[in-house]
Write a structure and sequence with these properties.
- This protein has a domain of 63 residues.
- The chain contains 7 helices and no strands.
- It is mainly alpha-helical.
- The chain is 68% helix and 0% strand.
- Helix 6 crosses helix 7.
- The chain is elongated and about 80 Å long.
């Protein structure tokens, strides 16, 4: 016959395995690599539409960013190397000027 210690060890192991299986089954699967909303960023995004339009109007640019374009470009040149991301075959990273605009806003 089996001893009660081995039965309790077996029960604990079984409970542990069942708990692990339950945790694994509840893990959410990733649906998108890039969400469909963000895929249109190049065409419909704030930076690519609004900020490009602001570049032609110095006063509006200053109201939006609280600095002139020369200051914006100077800050960009100082931090560009630090905020640049690597291009991969999976997705295109957010550009450095767009990152800076997002941070300033």
């Amino acid at each position: 016959m089996f001893s009660s210690d081995s039965d309790s060890d077996f029960d604990e192991d079984l409970q542990f395995l069942l708990a692990m299986k339950l945790l694994k089954s509840k893990k959410k699967k990733r649906r998108y690599w890039v969400h469909p909303i963000n895929r249109g960023r190049q065409d419909k995004g704030e930076f690519h539409r609004l900020v490009r339009e602001l570049e032609s109007d110095d006063e509006k640019f200053h109201q939006y960013f609280r600095m002139n374009q020369a200051q914006y470009e100077e800050i960009h040149s100082l931090i560009e190397g630090d905020i640049k991301k690597v291009h991969t075959k999976f997705r295109e990273p957010i550009g450095t000027k767009e990152r800076l605009a997002l941070c300033l806003r």
